[in-house]
From TrEMBL:
Protein family (similarity comment): In the C-terminal section; belongs to the class-I pyridoxal-phosphate-dependent aminotransferase family.
InterPro entries: Aminotransferase_I/II_large, HTH_trans_reg/aminotransferase, PyrdxlP-dep_Trfase, PyrdxlP-dep_Trfase_major, Tscrpt_reg_HTH_GntR, WH-like_DNA-bd_sf, WH_DNA-bd_sf
Cofactor(s) recorded in Swiss-Prot or TrEMBL: pyridoxal 5'-phosphate
CDD domains with a match to the protein in the record: AAT_like, WHTH_GntR
Residue ranges annotated for the HTH gntR-type domain, each copy included: 14-82
Keyword Methyltransferase part of the UniProt annotation: no
Organism of provenance: Sporosarcina aquimarina
Signal peptide: none
Lineage top rank: taxon: Bacteria
Protein name (Swiss-Prot/TrEMBL): PLP-dependent aminotransferase family protein
Amino acid sequence: MEEWFIALDKSLDIPLYEQIYRQMKQDITEQRVPVGKKLPSKRKLSEFLSISQTTIEFAYGQLVSEGYIISVPRSGYFVQDIEELAYVEKQKVKEISIPERSQTAIDFSPGMVDPDTFPFTKWRKVAKDVIDEHAAHLLQLGDPHGDVELRNEIATYLYHSRGVICTPDQIIIGSGTEQLIPLIIRILGSDAVYAVEDPGYPLTHHVFDHNLRSAIPIAVDADGIDVDALQRTPATVAYVTPSHQFPTGSVLSAPRRAALLNWASSNSDHVIIEDDYDGEFRYASRPIPSLQGMDRGENVIYLSTFSKSLMPSLRIAYMVLPSALLERYRGAFIQYASTVPRIEQHMLARFMADGQFSRHLNRMRKIYRKKLHILKGTLSPYEPRISYSGDEAGMHIIVTVQSQQSESELADLALQKGIRVYSLGGYQSSAVQDFPSFLLGFGGLHEQDIKQGIDKLMAVWNIKKMDPR
């Protein structure tokens, strides 16, 4: 230990050695420093605090005399066991109660990815290639929009896989959509009125609330957001998930896509925020093209992330801004630094440039398609007491249970047996379904856990398999 954080105030009448003594004594009696810990040498501490060694010596001498520390010849000073000091009244440290998350054997979270199939070997090689003595420039701040190497790869990928038409200059990289959305709110101004899907992603609602922006809920059905209902509101900004609506899984139909784009082009203040958080994962056919690629009036902000396609902990997301909003963004945030470390940006860029990202996506589509097939096959014998929807894409489905019990009651019963499910009611502003419904994610579960989890869940809910006769 070469340092010890001590706040010295030279304006006080209390001598500096007394201030050092008091703070060290308090740290020791409150057990912030373990018994036997070596104190910094008088020379090191004097250099650290920019005071004389004599001052340190006075403070240490007082602590030694009172038994808080011990001096060992040719070794230094060490914290003494204050349990031996009967006269020391030790201050109790207030214990902070942290609510424990219930332990679950099976978690049907819609936000988890498969942890066993990540290409660690390829990622390790990319890291080794990027992090060497030639990468010293990556220690400095880079482009505030994100390094061009990654933006180039994202632009190419988006064009070929999602039909997004943009240049690398239009791409802004950030550490998650919850970090990018407030930036969008800033550039759209205080007069913008937001509409959101109902049900929808709760974190988005929280971000709007946190930024003092109210959001008008617009109902979602099998064809996606109700554009007619949107047009009857004063909303100027529509936040949508058209390729795979979260959480229902519905895909915005072609007529409604056209209607939504027409709504956006009908007024210069109208903007669509297209969140394409897991548009890559569609199993019955090719991924649905983006709204941004269909837009002719530059009215769509495209937003996406690598959380589902690669790993949630990577914390890299991006948005594609229309030209007019890009100029507004530059004017507002030109002094901002990128929130994503440059080394991680270059690792991802290399991973994409080498073709590893595309290969990983292709592999994961097959794995998730198989897991979805297992989930649906395991649920099938329990029909008609249960039904499911939203299986066209993504990494979860919606299961509806014909039960007189509420969603919270059924969820609690499952949790008591070590199974966590997610109520659809937690994603919508008002309960509208006739029967309780739940999101069942399958991305992070092993195939056997899916089978066992469903059978156990149905037993907990007292739902019998259909008689094959």
